[in-house]
Design a protein that fits this description.
Largest sheet: 2 strands, antiparallel
Distance between the termini: 87 Å
């Protein structure tokens, strides 16, 4: 058959039948150094590190204690904040790193030259014990208290967290729970955990997800947290012992401050911060005192009591008027200023009854100022205040003043501890689109949006036009951390 008549396949078969010549020896010459460099050397470095001038830690030698650095505010709660023991042996010259199948996630990038930091043993998959060296505070998916009532079994860390997939791989996996299907258990959750209060859920779309459960505080102690299921048209309240009408402060016409009328917005108090909650903690000095001054002497409006313990407030008032009694020249200045205030025509001064001359008993004057402060002008405006009988703290100068108790404010807590929410990702929306603060008259109103509000923008796991495709990992953590657990 002529050469030109042969098919391409026939010509390829004929070429393969030709003698190899030098190809075979050359392939062996290349194979041997590759085998030595990429297999023999790493194995020797792991098994006989002494050949490279490195000695393994003796089994009898105490493990090295590694001091964890101070964690950032927004660090993952699983990170170990206490000293941890490191018993691994770094492979000599990091020769095992040539087996690296791909870049580690950014959080683990510092371990790329130390394979045995995670892979304890030869050619073994990563064990949970290796992960827990750093992530010792990692919570379980089901709490230890409820685990006996379920048929749930925890999986391996690496079954969901697959590294060597790129710098951002773990962060993306954590968003979407790669390797785990939440709906496999939660669609029929009662089968897995018959006693659970969690309702069945298979997706976020429509009625496939139950109404949210909100954590509210029934008292100031951590044990006072309760979880309440939201219901349509049924408001949730949390008695905070604080008086704060959102509607008054968000009046579009503005509110009167000591100096001018001010139109307030949510951002005046709720300032973004790089924290777990996303906002800076509110405090009297930074957010309230500019308008709600703690003045007690009308003639000296800039002199204020501290925003703190009752006995510190009482001592401040008592000591001020005692000082005036002992220093006539200062008392005369205050009396002169009081006379000016009394002489102002047409001015509605709520403290006019307190503008008499300071010629009487200083303790009586201090007592009068104390009652005004606690019951009328300052404390009672925002707090639940109760007058009590008897002496106060006998170690303070205000022990003989009228005594008061201020109801303790419930500490801040996560409203949805089993979920996560990034306010920054929603900053293009107005606060009012989710939180109906301008219609709230009481501080006890829990201004948490219901699920149908979220579903206006978020679809489920299937894409929907003009909606954000959202699976379980977008809003939920898999692990339950102890500090997030509320009493049910």
């Amino acid at each position: 058959m002529a050469e030109q008549e042969k098919s391409p396949l026939q010509r390829e078969q004929q070429a393969l039948q030709k003698p190899l010549g030098l190809k075979r020896p050359l392939s062996w010459l290349l194979f041997v150094p590759i085998l030595f460099a990429f297999l023999v050397l790493p194995l020797l470095a792991m098994q006989v590190p002494g050949l490279f001038g490195v000695e393994h830690t003796s089994p009898d030698e105490k493990p090295q204690t590694v001091r964890a650095e101070k964690l950032p505010v927004n660090a993952h709660p699983s990170l170990q904040s206490t000293p941890v023991s490191n018993t691994r042996n770094t492979t000599a010259l990091a020769l095992d790193s040539i087996w690296n199948p791909g870049p580690l996630a950014s959080a683990h990038a510092n371990l790329e030259g130390d394979c045995q930091a995670c892979h304890a043993g030869n050619f073994s998959r990563v064990k949970d014990e290796s992960c827990l060296v750093c992530h010792g505070n990692m919570g379980l998916h089901v709490t230890e208290q409820t685990l006996p009532d379920t048929s749930f079994e925890e999986g391996r860390c690496a079954s969901c967290h697959r590294d060597h997939k790129g710098r951002e791989s773990l962060a993306e996996q954590n968003k979407h729970f790669v390797g785990a299907d939440c709906a496999a258990c939660h669609t029929d959750i009662k089968t897995v955990a018959p006693k659970t209060e969690t309702l069945a859920v298979s997706d976020f779309a429509g009625d496939k997800h139950p109404a949210f459960r909100i954590t509210v505080a029934t008292g100031p102690e951590p044990s006072d947290l309760r979880r309440i299921r939201m219901a349509a048209n049924t408001p949730i309240v949390e008695k905070t012992n604080l008086k704060f009408p959102h509607d008054v402060h968000l009046d579009p016409k503005g509110i009167d401050s000591p100096s001018k009328k001010v139109v307030m917005e949510c951002a005046n108090c709720h300032e973004p911060a790089d924290t777990a909650t996303g906002f800076k903690t509110l405090n009297m000095e930074s957010h309230c005192q500019e308008c709600h001054k703690l003045s007690f002497e009308p003639a000296l409006p800039d002199r204020q009591v501290p925003h703190g313990p009752v006995d510190a407030v009482l001592s401040t008032v008592e000591e001020f008027y005692s000082y005036l009694a002992l220093h006539p020249e200062e008392r005369n200045k205050v009396n002169a200023q009081r006379a000016v205030l009394r002489a102002r025509p047409g001015e509605k001064n709520p403290n006019r009854s307190n503008l008499r001359n300071l010629s009487g008993n200083p303790r009586a004057q201090a007592a009068f100022a104390t009652v005004e402060l606690f019951e009328n002008t300052a404390c009672a405006v925002c707090h639940e205040v109760k007058a009590v009988d008897g002496l106060g703290n006998t170690k303070t100068s205000g022990s003989r003043m009228p005594q008061y108790e201020i109801a303790e404010i419930n500490p801040a807590h996560p409203w949805m501890p089993m979920a996560k929410f990034d306010h920054k990702a929603h900053e293009f929306e107005s606060c009012e689109s989710c939180h109906k603060a301008s219609k709230s008259e009481e501080a006890s109103d829990v201004l948490m949006p219901a699920i149908d509000g979220c579903q206006t923008c978020h679809a489920g796991s299937k894409p929907v036009l003009n909606k954000v495709q959202s699976n379980c990992g977008v809003c939920h953590e898999y692990h339950i951390h102890k500090k997030e657990v509320a009493v049910k």
